[in-house]
Amino acid sequence: ERIYLRQKDSLHDQIAWDYGDVHYYEDANDGGPLTCQYVFVLDALNFCFWPTPEYVMEYEHLARGLKTAVLHDRSALDASRLANVTTETVASWFAPFHPPQLDERVWRLVSMAVRKVQELGAGLARFFDGLALNLVRASKFSAVECIRLVLAHFPGKPLRRGGAPMTWRWFVGFQDHAVYKGDQVFLYKRVQILVGDVWAAYGRHIVDMAVPSTHVVGGFYDIDRLTMFGTMLLRLLVCTQLCCGEFFMVGLVRL
């Protein structure tokens, strides 16, 4: 908390969505739907990255690969195409990594990621007229409601091997939860990152429901209710600032 309070005034300006030319945001300033569609697909796949024989596949490769696909074909992320996406198409988004660079193990994981994209496309087509932005609009500027809508419409389906369900959270859409010491713990890490990314992509606007001029696409009045999730970088920061050897996840979203 002390670290946050020291940095909160400049926090929102430290890393912009367009930093490093990694993300797509061409229509964000106009409140267009393609940026939102891009963010949903990106974060549906933002669950794991894999080493190849010569390189390490990272988040920025997927972000840039998806951006390239959209710039080349603005219909590439249409819901109907996502619902029927192939393994080869998903693999092509991880530029510059393409078969045969992907080994057999990585290829299997990419094939599993196809399920998430297909679920996303089918859900958007069925419930939101094909547009992720319609889901965001349905949240009525509430980040927490946006999370609820994603969880309700994209529950995922666990894979099974030998009759037993596999428990890896990325196979069940955004519904990541676990049992800890007998209690069910709802993490919802990926969906909160998704909503935070939508907010960032459209300019990080804070909505005041009493001021209509602040009611902009991708803005939320309760973005501060999302969880902060710890990473190795956070651990290094905490240890450096507080000389603390423990690792904590701070904040809980109150759903």
Automatic annotation (TrEMBL):
Q: Which UniProt keywords apply?
A: Hydrolase
| EC number(s) from the headed UniProt entry | 3.2.2.-
Give the GO terms filed under biological process for this record.
tRNA modification
Q: Which reaction does it catalyse?
A: queuosine 5'-phosphate + H2O = queuine + D-ribose 5-phosphate
Molecular function in Gene Ontology: hydrolase activity
Hydrolase: is it a keyword of this entry? yes
Q: What is the similarity comment for this entry?
A: Belongs to the QNG1 protein family.
Protein task: Catalyzes the hydrolysis of queuosine 5'-phosphate, releasing the nucleobase queuine (q). Is required for salvage of queuine from exogenous queuosine (Q) that is imported and then converted to queuosine 5'-phosphate intracellularly.
The name of this protein is Queuosine 5'-phosphate N-glycosylase/hydrolase
